[in-house]
Every structure is written in structure tokens, then in C-alpha cells.
Amino acid sequence: MSININLRTTSFLLIGFALISASSCSSDKKEETAVNKDTPIVVSVATPAGNNQQGISVSGQVEASQTANISTRIMGYITMLKVKVGDRVSKGQIIATISNQDILAKRAQTDAMITEAQAAVTSAQKDYDRFTILYKQQSATAKELDNATLQFHSAQSRLEAAKQMRNEVSASLGYTTLTAPFSGIITQKLADAGSMANPGMPIVTLEQTGTYQVSASVPENSINQIHVNTEAMVSIKSLDKTFKGSISQINPSSQYTGGQYIIKVSIPEEAKKGLYAGMYATVSITLKQSEANNPEYNKILVPVSSIEHKEQLTGLYTVGSNNTALLRWVRLGKTYGDQVEVLSGLEKTEQFVVAAEGKLYNGVPVKIK
Questions:
Q1: Residue 72: CA count within 13 A, CB half-sphere
Q2: Is the pTM value of this prediction over 0.85?
């Protein structure tokens, strides 16, 4: 009987010690959690972009400053095509040749005509010289001298016509050998050897390398706000690359571009590395202070990276009065490069979080860096 009582007492003591230990561990965890919860997260804050950063944003594409469609002015079969897409060619290098047997035959005919005309000129000149001497000796009449002079001049005209015909044939023969007008890279090959080449039909497209620019379309309600040499920020999303350029050209007409005015943005040399023609770009053009004060351009802009997306809602974190994170729901507008317009939910002078050194949520303590 006493043995059972001792065992029962021992069991109660062990259970008690276990409960005390569990209670102690639980309180330690709660204390640790409380300490972690009270540790503020370091954040960086900013205010929306000011007027001096306002502007317009348009879409464009990277293109070569100089592009040429290589074609011929005569009809004939392509006898040789020496290049393929991606080949680099130098100025004057032969790209393709067109069949020219018929033109060579015409050149031989003109050569024969020149020889015949030259012989006629030589004969007519002898007659002219002879009748000139006879006329001075009063052994020939003026009529005979006039006839000799006329025949001489006619022979000279026929010789000149034959020579010009040969120049025309030589020019046509030159169109059968297509050469590169400048150094560059072949970007398109539109025909193959053996195909029939027609006048004006492009055979290959040549682009000058290292001379890239951005071509963008500006709507008519914004074209008056920009000028040549105006600064522009160019963003290439596919390369995650942003650089500064300047407007080098503004097309004053939109007749053939659907109401859009084409502008050209020059690219600095150090930014051309890695670019390819055809890449899409976003061009953000900074406006003057007087233009930025216009309500149409007086927008609230924040970095796209600061926006939080939860289902169909968008928001960003602000810092509350008690130094805690507060998720503010906002309504967004257009995107301008790496910035987005806030239509409502944020004032111009309010600070918002742009970066945090931890996970943010509503109510978490924060510390401004």
C-alpha cells in the first residue's frame, strides 16, 4: 500500500515539474516574440516627384540612324548574292550581281557605232579642210564649202550621240553590280540567287552600326511642349537600362503618321553598347518649369517599385504618427518610365516608403533611415 502511494506521489511531482518547464519555455518564447515585434524596421522614405520632374512619356523604338534598302534599277536574274543576315560589310563591298549579258551586247553595239562615227568624222574633216583651202584659192564655191561644213558637223554630232549612248549603257551596266553605300550590317535578306530582280525591289537591307537613335511618336496635344535639344530619359525595359538623351529632330508634319509627330532622340556613345535596332523604349521628356506648372502636367509620381499589389487593389506604405507602417490604398494612372502617377490617396507633401530592410505590414514599428 505504501509503495502505491509513493509511486503516485512521484508521478504528481514529475507532472508538476513538466508543467513548470513548459510554462517557463512558453513565457520565454512570448518574451522573445514581443522583443522581435517591438524591433522597428528601418525604412527609406520620399515625397512624390516635384514639378521639375514632370513631363510627358511616349513609346518608341531603337533604330539605326542610317538605313538603306539595296535594290537595282534594271530587271534581271540575281546571279550572285554574297551576304546573309548578320554579315558585316564595308563601304564599296560587292553585295550582289544581276545578269548583264544583254547590256554587254548593247555596249558592244555602241562601241561599233562609235568606231563608225569616228571614221565618218575623220572623213568629213578631211573634206572640210580640203574645201576650206580650195575656197581660199577661189577654186570652190561657198555652197560647196557650206556642204562640207554641214557634213563635218553632222558627223561630229553622230559621234557625240554614240558616245552618250555608250555612257547610258555603262550606267545601266553599273546597276548590275550592287555595292554597300556605307559600312554596316545586313539586317534583312529579301531574295536569293536565281530570283528575278525588279526595278526598285529591295534585295537586302543594310543598317549602319553604332549609330543608334530612338524614334518616338508624340501626340498633337503635346508636340508644342517639346523642343530640339530638350533632355529626355530613355528606358529600355528589355535590358533594364535607363540613360539620358536629347531630342535631335522633330518632324513638323503628321500627314502620313496617323496624327502622331515623329521625334528622334540621340543616344550617347556609352549607352549604345548592347542595343539592337527594333528594341522598344519609353521616352520621358522633362518639361520646363512654366510648362510643368500647367495642371495637365502637375502630376503626383511615385516609383513603380514602391507600389504594393493585393488582388485588385494597389497601395503603398506610409509612416503613421506613432512611427508604424500604414498601408495606404491609392488609385493609379499612367506609367512614365519607372514612375507611376497617383490619382488619389496620396498628397504631394506626404512621405511614403520606397525601401525597407524587412517585411512590412500594417502596424509594424518602423524607423526612418
A1: 28
A2: no
